[in-house]
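User: I've been trying to design a sequence by hand for this structure and keep getting stuck. Would you show me what you'd pick, starting by listing the structure so we're on the same page?

Assistant: Good idea, let's start from the same input. This is the structure you sent:
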């Protein structure tokens, strides 16, 4: 379907769903996937339309997880109408006040406090039993984005056989750590660009359609070692310890401080290895250049954490050798 035809179909569907033939649409936000979001105004209220082309995206997981979050009392968008065949959802507008621009040293404790309250509710109250598991195959497939898109495509580096052994050893250690943790509901993108400041029941939660059942530290590290903003390590570790104690009180984990922090470290390393590949794929495959500027922070996390642990330190050395003195933000010609 051509873009003008899709736009006409989107507008017609929105007007029908709102029962308002005068309703219009304006861009609300873009997405790293094929989804797009549009804002409509009708009867003095603002709504969001999610457009997920059905040949590219399946909205059923989004609808399923939204229902789970709302049932647990979390602040996910209220759904007014949806059409699985056409790939449209009409939902309540949670506003435009993203966490990221509001985060500052004087505001972060309160904002992250609310986000960790919501995270604990997700991990203790959301039904996750039949969600897809964050299993070995999924974890490895994500990390394989590093050699494919970051090393080979972005850096032009072809790993030798001994390099592949280093990569495989590190990946196996990260999988083992992830699988040893308590398995809970995992949002998978719980960070400052997917959280909205809300006057009540803060935060509003977005982009949850990829939820799985997986490691307890995954969403915590997504929040606290966010790919778009960094905090002093001592402050991060203090937040981690506060949250660990709440998990212990809730009966989710019995890990001590050192064990939990190691799990947090290695889970973050798995995620950031994946993200190095994803940010490069978004440029080379999808033409979205904006994510290349976010590579330095992700690499900083990867390097600092990876060096700390003997099972992953050789992988960091390999990546440093591949990177050399290149500017990581510049695409390969």
């Amino acid at each position: 379907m051509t873009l003008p035809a899709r736009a006409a179909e989107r507008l017609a569907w929105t007007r029908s769903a709102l029962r308002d033939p005068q309703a219009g649409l304006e861009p609300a936000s873009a997405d790293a996937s094929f989804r797009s979001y549009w804002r409509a105004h009708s009867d003095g209220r603002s709504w969001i339309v999610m457009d997920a082309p059905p040949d590219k995206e399946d909205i059923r997981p989004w609808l399923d997880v939204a229902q789970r979050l709302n049932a647990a009392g979390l602040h996910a968008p209220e759904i007014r109408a949806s059409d699985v065949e056409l790939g449209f959802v009409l939902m309540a507008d949670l506003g435009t006040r993203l966490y990221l621009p509001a985060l500052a040293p004087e505001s972060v404790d309160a904002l992250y406090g609310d986000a960790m309250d919501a995270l604990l509710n997700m991990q203790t109250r959301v039904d996750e039993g039949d969600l897809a598991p964050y299993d070995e195959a999924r974890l490895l497939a994500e990390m394989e984005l590093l050699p494919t898109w970051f090393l080979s495509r972005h850096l032009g580096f072809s790993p030798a056989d001994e390099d592949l052994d280093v990569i495989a050893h590190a990946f196996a250690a990260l999988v083992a750590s992830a699988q040893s943790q308590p398995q809970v509901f995992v949002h998978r993108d719980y960070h400052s660009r997917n959280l909205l400041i809300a006057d009540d029941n803060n935060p509003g939660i977005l982009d949850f359609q990829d939820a799985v059942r997986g490691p307890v530290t995954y969403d915590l590290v997504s929040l606290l070692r966010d790919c778009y903003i960094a905090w002093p390590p001592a402050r991060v570790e203090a937040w981690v310890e506060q949250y660990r104690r709440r998990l212990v009180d809730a009966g989710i984990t019995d890990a001590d401080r050192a064990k939990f922090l190691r799990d947090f470290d290695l889970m973050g390393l798995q995620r950031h290895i994946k993200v190095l590949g994803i940010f490069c794929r978004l440029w080379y495959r999808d033409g979205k250049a904006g994510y290349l500027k976010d590579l330095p922070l992700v690499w900083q996390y990867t390097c600092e954490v990876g060096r700390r642990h003997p099972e992953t330190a050789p992988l960091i050395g390999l990546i440093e050798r591949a990177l050399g003195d290149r500017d990581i933000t510049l695409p390969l010609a």
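That's my pick for every position. To get oriented when you compare it with your attempt: Strands lie at 25-29, 36-42, 45-51, 79-83, 88-92, 183-186, 195-196, 204-205, 212-215. The chain is about 50% helix and 10% strand.
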